[in-house]
Automatic annotation (TrEMBL):
Repeat positions for Solcar: 1-77, 85-170, 179-271
An example Gene Ontology CC term for this record: membrane
Domain of life, source organism: Eukaryota
Family named by the database record: Belongs to the mitochondrial carrier (TC 2.A.29) family.
InterPro entries cross-referenced by the UniProt entry: MCP, MCP_dom_sf, MCP_transmembrane
Gene3D superfamilies, alphabetized: Mitochondrial carrier domain (1.50.40.10)
SUPFAM superfamilies per the UniProt record, alphabetical: Mitochondrial carrier
Protein name: Mitochondrial carrier protein
Source species: Emiliania huxleyi (Coccolithophore)
Cellular compartment(s): Membrane
Keywords assigned by UniProt, alphabetized: Membrane, Repeat, Transmembrane, Transport
Keyword DNA repair on entry: no
Length: 285
């Protein structure tokens, strides 16, 4: 019996509820780190740092489950040797996993962003935000920024998943034993850091496109390329530095969250496989 990756991945949702840091990240991407901190606290004190976190929790469980399941499924389909996939096969599986999970839950991604940067009391909850956005701006608004999101998540997931699994398997062969928790944390931290540095400008553009049209965030971009161009050419603080605005809070959230999710996934999968083996041995022959 094979353990489904989606069954294990659904366990890790609770470890990624890094609400305050996620809130700072969203505001920082839309404006700037210090400005984001001041605006959040002025809007509602400490509770405001957790605004929109429920949407993040609701989103992350199915997203993680689908991502890990698709990665394993595509790897099984495409790899000539499932136990030793090539780098290109890992990258393909990671890209497919990112695209599938992002597209499937994208309306919740929009809701998460809007609830995080909205004024206190503007939305009564996830359902109200979905309904109000769809009524005021049409169903297309729930997919605003999807091309930018896919452009960021596909390379991010490809690099993150491929690098994590490559490091994990290499260390297991080198040490001749299964990686422990600290090793998994280290592999997850390194893979997520590399992926973040490689793709952050696209994540920044995604957040700005999602926020466009809300109070305080005028509609000023005509798509992903235009958003990146305007950000880079901003006279008041453009350049490469502007494309990485808000990356510090993003890294403070993403690196530990992704690392912990890998640990939970791997240890849960190992425990489930061990339990299945015990049940098989206990069955009468």
């Amino acid at each position: 019996m094979q353990v489904g990756s989606h069954e294990v991945a659904s366990v890790d949702g609770s470890v990624r509820k890094l609400g305050p840091v996620a809130m700072i990240e969203r505001r920082a991407a839309a404006s700037g780190v210090l400005a984001g901190l001041r605006a959040i606290y002025a809007a509602g004190g400490v509770p405001a740092f957790f605004q929109g976190n429920l949407a993040n929790v609701v989103k992350i469980v199915p997203e993680s489950a689908l991502k890990f399941w698709v990665y394993d499924w595509v790897k099984r389909l495409s790899a000539r040797d499932y136990s030793r996939p090539t780098a290109s096969e890992r990258l393909l599986a990671g890209a497919a996993a990112g695209a599938a999970s992002c597209t499937a839950i994208y309306p919740l991604e929009v809701v998460k962003t809007r609830m995080a940067i909205a004024r206190a009391g503007e939305y009564e909850g996830i359902g109200h935000c979905l309904q109000r956005t769809a009524r005021a701006e049409g169903l297309r608004a729930l997919y605003k920024g999807l091309p930018a999101s896919l452009a960021g998540i596909i390379p991010f997931s490809a690099v993150d998943l491929a690098l994590f699994n490559t490091l994990k398997e290499w260390l297991a062969r080198y040490r001749r034993r299964e990686p422990d928790v600290l090793t998994l944390l280290g592999c997850g931290a390194l893979s997520s850091t590399v992926a973040q540095l490689a793709t952050y400008p696209l994540a920044l553009a995604k957040t700005r496109l999602q926020a466009a049209g809300m109070p305080g965030y005028p509609q000023r971009y005509n798509g992903l390329a235009d958003c990146l161009r305007q950000t880079y050419s901003d006279r008041e603080g453009g350049g490469v530095r502007a494309l990485y605005r808000g990356i510090l809070p993003n890294m403070l959230k993403a690196v530990p969250a992704i690392s912990i999710s890998y640990v939970v996934f791997e240890t849960s999968k190992k425990a489930m496989l061990s339990r299945i083996d015990d049940q098989r041995r206990a069955e009468p022959r």
